[in-house]
Amino acid sequence: MTLNVLQNTSPFETGSWSFSIKVEINGFSTLQSGTFPFTCMYSTNPGFLEISDKYYSRYLRYSGSKGTFFAIGENVGTLGWDYTGRSPENSCRFEQYMTELHSYGGNYLRLLLVEFDLQIEWEKLGQYNQHVCCELDRIFDNAKTLHLFIHPTLDWNDRYYDKNNAWNSNPYNGMPGIESALDFMTNSDAKTQYKKYLRYVVSRWGYSTNLAVYELWNEIDGLSDPDPGSQAYYDDDSDRSKVEGWIREMYNYIRNIDQGCHLITLSFSGDPTTHDKRDIWLDGTDIRTAHNYGSARWKNYGTITHLGRYEITQDLHAVTYETTTGYGPVIFGEIGGAQKPCIEKCTDREFHNDLWSTAFMGGYGAGLYWFWQVIHADTAETYWHSGQHYLHHYQKLRNFIANIDFEEREYEPDKWCDGILWIDGKLDSYYLRDENSKEKVFGWIQNRTYHWANLNDNNSCIADILTYDGCYDADGDKDTIEDNDKPQEPISGAYMKITGLKWSWPWPLKKEYYQVTWYNTFTGTFTGSQILHTQVWDNNLWPHIPNTDYNNPDWAYKVEYLPDYEAKNMVDTIQTPEPVIAITQNQSVTKDLEMQQK
Q1: DSSP H or E segment with residue 293
Q2: Which residues lie closer than 8 Å to 28 by C-beta, 6 or more apart?
Q3: Per-residue pLDDT tens for 482-536?
Q4: 338 touches 345 (CB < 8 A)
Q5: Mean pLDDT of the chain, nearest integer
Q6: How far is residue 31's CA from residue 33's CA, in Å, rounded to a whole number?
Q7: How far is Cα 340 from Cα 454, in angstroms, rounded to an integer?
Q8: Contact (Cβ atoms closer than 8 angstroms) between residue 315 and residue 307
Q9: Please, where are the H alpha helices in 221-376?
Q10: 174-194: pLDDT as tens digits
Q11: Torsion, CA 139, CA 143, CA 146, CA 151, rounded to 10
Q12: Band of the pLDDT at 587, cuts 50, 70, 90?
């Protein structure tokens, strides 16, 4: 018997190595090869992604270089697969997506290995489709060339539903004693078989430093029996315990055979912060992956009764309230204006706002948008819009984020708004503050009145949604329009509050100076700066905000500490973004701010 073997490996050290191959095939004698030596040379590859050992593990870094990593990317769910092989057209489209993502500053791609696209085990139990495997080989090869990191989901609920007859075609459904996903998760033979699938995945692609994380299951809180209308297992204590037992077992299995090279995660479709999900975050995952869709104004900041994305990020980062253990990196694995691309077809504002806001909430990357067809303006998809692609927003964020070294400094998130958000607030901001030195801040602020639903005067597509004449989902229901009751309102002469900077010493005689530089998120350019000092009674800074209007509804900013001598030398050359007019709010602060600029 002759076997042709291709070996891929990623040694941790340079020098002389060797390997041998042992082959066991039912009905045949075991084959044992001789020893094959090879030499591992120095490489510029920075290594696998790992959790930083600093700052309660908010961020990721490279295992080799220990340099910081920040994810900017998207989902690509399906492109249409024929199990005899993906059509050349679809393969080229996927390669085009990856190339475009890289060209515009992206570095992270989440893939769904689903039964009608990239799932390798579907036609027959224990048989791994080599057409699909070759396609995944191409994806990882391209990822290496383009410096992209791949986040594959290894399983998902639809394979276990009766929906589209998926459960009827699921090869695990044919095993004795298995009539539901819960049977699949508790049956010892099924678990043994599934571990073979996991072993194959790790053996074939686990060598890749461009494999960012294994996602064990996509939206597992929605898993239920195949019968329509069945209660989700996570809604029952006993069933949830069985599901989580399976998660822990598979997590430990991958951790063992992968030798700790790659991170492991799990995603939820509902509120991921509820108490009944906290335990599995601690001992069944390395990082936390949440999904969050919505088009309401408060979706990022939150209200008294609704958690915003900011609060979700903080809750998931510190999973337990009672102890200081359980900290972990967080990312929004799926985001979007709604669970259908109605809004995104009409305007890039929701995509832009979601990308920038989630980048400064303390996750290890910006939220990953779901509607890849719209982002790439793919004319082969029914979701295509008549405008240009949205990829340029990635580049603007990448250029700004490049100034932040997450590994060297202790960046913690904070937020601010100018009023009671759900009543009269118009401005909200999210920022990362260097908690160690108090010398650097990076953030983003937006005028919330330029909500997508208020842009209909300039966009006939949005007007069509608002009048319920278009944008239907698959069931024919109209899109739900939320919070469309406030007009656009340009704001000039306003200010914002940044807290937690250096304390003046000797207090209260000394002031600390900072330079605030503004960044236009649409042009990708820095537009001007201000030199301000903290107040004599606290350690807060009150920068003037550039005007916000239809063309510039938001700004990014960076704040850098100026030592005394530098501040004194520069104080007479203060520059401010134009146009900025006198402050009109909070007169108790206005006088001090005016004095700072004299």
Answers
A1: strand 288-293
A2: 1
A3: 555 567 889 998 999 999 998 766 655 677 889 999 999 999 999 889 888 887 6
A4: no
A5: 83
A6: 7
A7: 19
A8: yes
A9: 237-257, 278-284, 309-317, 342-346, 349-359, 372-375
A10: 899 999 999 999 999 999 999
A11: 120
A12: very low
Q: 């990362």: which residue's tokens?
A: 432
* CA distances (Å), origin 43, targets 13, 46, 70, 147, 473: 10, 8, 22, 14, 49
**Buried/exposed 314-323: b ≥16 CB within 10 Å, e otherwise:** bbbbebeeee
Q: Which residues contact 187 (CB under 8 A, 6 or more apart)?
A: 175, 177, 178
Take residue 226 and report the two structure tokens written for it.
Answer: 């195949």
Q: Which two tokens stand for residue 520?
A: 């236009």
Structure-block tokens of residue 299: 């979706």
The set of residues, in sequence order, having a beta carbon less than 8 Å from that of 470 and lying 6+ positions away, is 461, 464
Residue 107, classed as helix, strand or coil, is: coil
Sign of CA dihedral 542, 547, 553, 555: negative
**Amino acid symbol at 416:** W
What tens digit of pLDDT does each residue of 197-229 get?
Answer: 999 999 999 999 999 999 999 999 999 998 888
| pLDDT tens string 407-460 | 888 899 999 999 876 666 889 999 999 998 999 999 999 998 888 888 877 777
Residues 367 and 355 sit within 8 Å (Cβ to Cβ):
yes
- DSSP symbols for 441-507: EEEEEEETTS-GGG-GGG-HHHHHHHTTSS-B-TTSPBPPP-S-------B-S-B--B-S-PPPSST
* Closest among 101, 100, 232, 206 to 152, alpha carbons compared: 206
Under 8 Å between Cβ of 42 and 56: no
Q: Please enumerate in sequence order all residues whose Cβ is within 8 A of that of 192, keeping only pairs 6 or more positions apart, or say none.
A: none
- As a whole number of angstroms, the distance between CA 551 and CA 539 comes to 33
Beta strands per DSSP E along 123-272: 149-153, 213-215, 263-265, 267-268
Model pTM? Answer: 0.89
Q: What is the DSSP string of 356-375?
A: HHHHTTTSSB---BS-HHHH
> Residue 110: which of 267, 222, 247, 315 has the closest Cα?
267
Number of Cβ atoms within 10 Å of the Cβ of 228 = 9
CA-closest candidate to residue 358, choices 432, 421, 435, 300: 300
Q: How far apart are CA 445 and CA 448, in angstroms?
A: 9
Residue identified by tokens 């400094």 is 409
